Amino acid sequence: MFRTARMVRVTAGVHAAARDEMVAALHEAGVIELQPVTGTRDPGTLIRPVPRSASVPEIAEVRSRLDRAIEILESVIPEPNPITALFGRGEMKRTSFTGIDAPSVLAEAERFREPVSTILSLHSRDIALGERMARLDEEEEMLRLLTPFGIEPGWLKAAELVEVRAGIIPDGECADIEAHLLENVPDLATAATVCGVGDRPTTVVTIAHPDASQKLDAVLRAIAFHEFVPETATGSAEEGIAAVREERGGIRKEQERIHSSLSAMAATHLVPLRAMAEELAIIRDREDAAPLFGKTETITVLEGWAREKDIPRITALCSSSSAGLAFCTTVPATGDDVPAAFDHPRWLAPYGFLTTMFGMPEYGKVDPTVFLAPVLVLTFGLMLGDAGYGILLALIAALLLRGAGHAPGTVRDLAIVLIACGIAGTVFGLLMGSFFGDLLPRVFGVTLPGTLIEPLKDPLSILIIALAIGIAHLNLGLCIAAAEHLREGKVRAMLLEEGTWFCLQPSAAVLILSFFGWGTFSPPVMTAAWAGAALGIGGIMVNEGPLGFFSITGYLGDWLSYARILALALATGGIAMMINTLSGMIAGIGPVFVIVGVIFAVVGHAANLILQSLGGFIHALRLQYVEFFGRFFTAGGRAFAPFAARRKVTEPPGGSR
Q1: How confident is the model at residue 655 (pLDDT cuts 50, 70, 90)?
Q2: Half-sphere exposure of 498 (CA within 13 A, CB side)
Q3: Are 372 and 352 in contact (CB under 8 A)?
Q4: Which of 218, 324, 385, 429 is the most buried (most CB within 10 A)?
Q5: Radius of gyration of the chain from Cα atoms?
Q6: Which among 397, 301, 358 is positioned nearest to 87, based on CA atoms?
Q7: pLDDT at residue 369 above 70?
Q8: Residue 534 Cα distances to 238, 507, 544, 555, angstroms
Q9: Same-domain pairing of 418 and 564
Q10: Confidence of residue 348 (pLDDT cuts 50, 70, 90)
């Protein structure tokens, strides 16, 4: 708990007949980080590398089709309400498949071939219809622009004696376009224009003898002429428009039928398709791991890292899944490539992600999570300091835990942490006499029992508490750093880097208290204080040189940084009191404004809860990351990445994990 988990190097071997069963069992357990076996063997060993599975390309192809079908079905179902998705927990039925190897799972996927083909076919047809609709829109626009000229679309083609062309000029003033055409259109050609209204382009129709066609083309290119190429070959433009609209209506009906069919298929096939895609992804992981294994004629060998406490479980899994046809050996972890993993009890595990946000500790080093958790909750509770806000925060976090946080992951961990923070805010709110600020005494004329300190009336006491927490927290970091130096045999480093501060702090406290008249000390104590201060400052200067002066001022700044606890506590209570005051003033205008005042109070307190919760959490974390971790913690460890089956909608064969 105080250090990263003890790791061991695991070597496991299994008879070829039971390989798939044992690999599947270890994959479901997620307790080993696989490493290449061939990379740890001598060239002359009997162990050979396992070739890449021939099933991987087929798995990739089948899964690609499934993923595409799932994406199509998800696009036709209504988007879930974000509030419901965040806080609600819908029914989730997990699916289990019987196969544990690639051939058997691919055989199970075969039964989805027909519905997947139908989904992809319907979608392809829908895309084609959409493209046709876009083309019809263009056709209708062309025909509409041709209508003022009274010409038939079928005339827009080259003939033996005359060529008729039509199109648009998107840019430029209509008068300028007409002047350009009048001046430059060659003999044996003529042009007519219809000016667009607003942003609409200018429409141009030209009639030319074939001998003038090339010159006319150059004139039109100069003004960015976009030529019409309509599909309508017979009849007038009006008749063509009517035909386009009729075809568009038929397409819309067909699209509605396609969407209805896809929606019906989503209701029956989306869940099993998601499950099958997940199962294929898991099998793909197993097949991709094969090149990490080694083999002889009859034995498959795998190696990797595991937590020492998981070895009994690994041994039992190897034995039970292979019917005794396996062995498992371990050696202590050595080298620089050992991964780091947490070894947290259940109550501490949710806080691990907060440590990894800063960085992963190196293997064998201090895991600061056990220190982070209680101080984070304590400082957040002091910063929030309101029972009403604390209760609301805990309730919201509990709903989040029931909804989006029901599955293991960061959201679940965050919800648990926020519940603890909400409870702390409630406790400190009771001690500080705050329930939505001064709502109780203002509205009901009562005060919270058990109130010890009110920040707005006695801010100095809160400041003293904050600074006391700060000095204790900083010295805890120094103690951890000193213990690490002694553990590594670095006595001189401990004396210069931490011992100097242990000497300087009490000495400085005595001198400051005496200077300001806040305390009286005997001459021997004062002499010891001067000597201790000189020794501490001297040690810092020896260790850091002239820059040691900035270490002293920096340490003072870090300590004073804990005064932010007072600042946020005052902000929470002060803003809440302001909201209550303004709400009362609004309600006091008249009976009609009572409802307005209540609405203002609800909205104001909701905004203050969000603001103060966010600010308190960020600043409480900052005190950990900057002031505390900076004393002893150096990130840089490689996180343990176990070979694990990540299931969301499926269960392992047999339904047990």
Answers
A1: low
A2: 21
A3: no
A4: 385
A5: 38
A6: 397
A7: yes
A8: 101, 9, 15, 17
A9: yes
A10: very high
In the block, tokens 């919270």 appear at 448
557 and 503 within one domain: yes
The answer to whether residues 394 and 480 belong to one domain is yes
- Tokens 């926020």, residue? 418
Site of tokens 């069919």: 261
Beta strands 294-295 and 299-307 are antiparallel
Reported as a pLDDT band with limits 50, 70 and 90, residue 578 is very high
Structure tokens at 112: 């989805």
pLDDT number for residue 40: 47
Looking at 275, 291, 307, the residue that finishes a domain is 291
- Residue 268 to residue 288: CA distance in whole angstroms: 32
Which of these three, 269, 291, 313, is where a domain ends? Answer: 291
Q: How buried is 223 (Cβ within 10 angstroms: 0-12 exposed, 13-18 middle, 19+ buried)?
A: middle
Residues contacting residue 469 through CB under 8 Å, at least 6 positions apart: 375, 378, 379, 382, 562, 565
Predicted pLDDT at 468:
95
Q: Which two tokens stand for residue 553?
A: 């001022």
Say how many domains are in the chain: 4
- Cβ neighbours of residue 60 closer than 8 Å, sequence gap 6 or more: 284
Could you report the per-residue pLDDT of 597-619, keeping only the tens digit for each? 999 999 999 999 999 999 999 99
Q: Do 63 and 28 belong together in one domain?
A: no
Other Cβ atoms less than 10 A from the Cβ of 592: the count is: 8
**Cα 533 from chain centre:** 49
d(CA 196, CA 362): 71
Q: Which domain holds residue 190?
A: 136-238
pLDDT at 43: 47
Residue 395 sits in the same domain as residue 432: yes
> Where do the DSSP E strands lie in 69-117?
95-96
Beta strand 294-295 with 48-49 is antiparallel
Domain identity same for 506 and 577: yes
Closest by CA position to 563, among listed 603, 634, 622: 622
Q: How confident is the model at residue 625 (pLDDT cuts 50, 70, 90)?
A: very high
Q: Are 434 and 574 in contact (CB under 8 A)?
A: no
The tokens describing 68, both together, are 């595409």
Strand partners for 295: 48, 300
Residue 166's Cβ-count burial label (10 Å; 0-12, 13-18, 19+) is buried
Same domain, yes or no, for 359 and 505?
yes
Instruction: Evaluate whether 507 touches 528 at the Cβ level (below 8 Å).
Output: yes
CATH number, domain containing residue 308 = 3.30.70.240
Question: 282 and 313: one domain?
Answer: no
**Degrees to nearest 5, angle at CA 543 with 541 and 545:** 45
